[in-house]
């Protein structure tokens, strides 16, 4: 017997379980207090974010504004990268991250700012999760791992790390 009320209606699609795709975790230590490290990440991404990892490339301008992280092109076009789910200045930034212009299923990015050991600055840890929600999650995760590593290296240099 079919599970549908009407014999001519197709059976509903079975719910797809999320894929098991590993998280990305990247970290760096910057020679700044936690408030300054947070500010450098949150207020100045346009000064360190790699153009190669953007929608509009050359001349792009990423910024946090109105609860979102957006990128603006030289022609004033906008692309939504993320919405801010939680922010604690100097401590934490939690984002719903959209992978690709017009993407509708977000992944999760959490950035923590904590005092580094022995007063050597701030440890910045970024964790990107939720790739299993995407149909091509494993491929996206592999691409993003290199991009986050590169972006944090550039952020670290911007903040004065050697």
From TrEMBL:
Pfam families assigned: AHSA1
Transmembrane portions of the chain: none
Domain Activator of Hsp90 ATPase homologue 1/2-like C-terminal: 65-153
Xref: SUPFAM superfamilies: Bet v1-like
Protein family according to the UniProt entry: Belongs to the AHA1 family.
Protein name in the entry: SRPBCC domain-containing protein
Gene source species: Arthrobacter caoxuetaonis
């Amino acid at each position: 017997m079919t599970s549908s009320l009407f014999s001519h209606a197709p059976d509903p699609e079975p719910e797809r379980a999320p894929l098991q795709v590993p998280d990305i975790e990247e970290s760096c230590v910057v020679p700044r207090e936690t408030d300054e490290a947070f500010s450098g990440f949150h207020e100045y991404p346009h000064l360190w974010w790699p153009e190669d990892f953007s929608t509009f490339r050359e001349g792009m301008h990423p910024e946090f504004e109105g609860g979102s992280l957006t990128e603006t092109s030289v022609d004033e076009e906008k692309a939504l990268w993320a919405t801010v789910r939680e922010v604690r200045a100097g401590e934490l930034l939690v984002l719903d991250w959209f992978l690709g212009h017009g993407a509708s299923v977000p992944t999760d990015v959490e950035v923590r700012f904590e005092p580094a050991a022995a007063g050597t600055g701030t440890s910045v840890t970024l964790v990107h999760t939720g790739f299993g929600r995407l149909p091509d999650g494993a491929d996206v995760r592999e691409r993003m791992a290199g991009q986050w590593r590169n972006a944090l290296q550039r952020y670290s240099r911007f903040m004065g790390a050697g």
